[in-house]
């Protein structure tokens, strides 16, 4: 545990999991081989769980939307995409992707009960000091029959080793982006969702080895790569077609994905 540890970003020194890091890294969001590249891969895998909208004016609420990385994968599915985030600089970029931006905390979203056909909480819960409140809010927003999709890091020693002790020492994710004390126990998450009427089904996921190694080598070499195009401008290179970069695995011990429908 790095209780008192301070970490560096390009502009200043901040404690682990401090949301101001995203302001300092604002130019990284749409770099295919930048520090947020794996978030693009996870967004593509999460979007694959979202079916086309079943009604006109369907709404998808994207909690912790960041710069709108989910948007290119939802562009043809028929949802009004509402993105919720605490970081204004990221929301500005999300708006450019066709997302309706809402500057708010995921534990207190100023939207009506049962307003959403889908709620996405991707790579969010491990950054929230009270993930149970975030789940309660996500379920409150869902209509009966609405779909919750999420992915997060498990509260295990293996997850801390891989995601923090190893991952943050490689040029893969920013140093200090996680606080392992906030990682989310998978069984507790399933139980909490059940309390709010969502039967959550989990599966383990992981980065594909070949794609991850190739990306890491490009990061180490510092090779230049063109930026992702905006939503609606064709498939973004590295996030749309081609080989999946996030694949299922038998274990939920590190990274896992969940989906479930809210009961009536």
CATH architecture: 3-Layer(aba) Sandwich
Measured between the Cα atoms of the first and last residue, the distance is: 41 Å
Count of individual helical segments: 8
Structural class designation = alpha/beta
- Shape category: globular
Order of helices and strands: EEHHEHEHEEHEHHEHEE
Low-confidence segments: 1-9, 224-230, 232-241
Quaternary state reads single chain
CATH topology: the name is: Rossmann fold
- The CATH class turns out to be Alpha Beta
Please compute the radius of gyration using only Cα atoms: 17 Å
The counted number of beta strands is 10
* Helix content range: 25-40%
How many structural units, i.e. domains? Answer: 1
What does this structure look like?
There is one protein chain. This protein is an alpha/beta fold. The protein has one domain (7-261): Rossmann fold (3-Layer(aba) Sandwich), CATH 3.40.50. The protein has 8 helices and 10 strands. It has helices spanning 21-24, 37-47, 71-74, 88-95, 131-141, 157-166, 186-195, 209-221, and strands at residues 7-8, 13-14, 59-63, 80-85, 100-103, 116-122, 142-153, 201-207, 246-249, 255-261. The strands form 2 sheets. The protein has an 8-stranded mixed β-sheet with strand order 5-4-3-6-7-10-8-9. Helix 4 (88-95) links the parallel strand 4 and strand 5 (100-103). It is globular and about 50 Å long.
């Amino acid at each position: 545990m790095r209780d008192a540890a301070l970490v560096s970003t390009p502009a200043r020194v901040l404690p682990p999991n401090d949301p101001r890091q995203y302001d300092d890294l604002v130019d990284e969001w749409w770099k295919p081989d930048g520090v947020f590249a794996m978030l693009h891969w996870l967004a593509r895998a999460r979007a694959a769980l979202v079916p086309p909208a079943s009604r006109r004016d369907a709404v998808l609420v994207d909690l912790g939307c960041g710069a709108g990385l989910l948007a290119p994968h939802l562009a043809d599915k028929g949802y009004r995409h509402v993105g919720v985030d605490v970081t204004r600089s990221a929301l500005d970029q999300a708006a450019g992707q066709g997302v309706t931006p809402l500057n708010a905390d995921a534990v207190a979203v100023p939207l009506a009960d049962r307003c959403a056909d889908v709620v996405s909480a991707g790579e969010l819960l491990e950054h929230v000091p009270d993930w149970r409140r975030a789940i309660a809010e996500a379920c409150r927003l869902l209509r009966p029959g609405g779909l919750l999709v999420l992915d997060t890091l498990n509260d295990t020693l293996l997850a801390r080793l891989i995601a923090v002790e190893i991952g943050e020492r490689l040029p893969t994710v920013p140093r200090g982006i996680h606080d392992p004390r906030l990682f989310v126990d998978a069984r507790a998450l399933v139980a909490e969702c059940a309390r709010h009427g969502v039967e959550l089904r989990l599966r383990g996921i992981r980065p594909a080895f070949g794609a991850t190694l190739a990306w890491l080598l490009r990061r180490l070499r510092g090779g230049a790569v063109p930026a992702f195009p905006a939503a609606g401008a064709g498939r973004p290179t590295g996030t749309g077609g081609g080989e999946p970069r996030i694949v299922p695995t038998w274990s939920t011990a590190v990274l896992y994905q969940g989906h479930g429908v809210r009961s009536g």
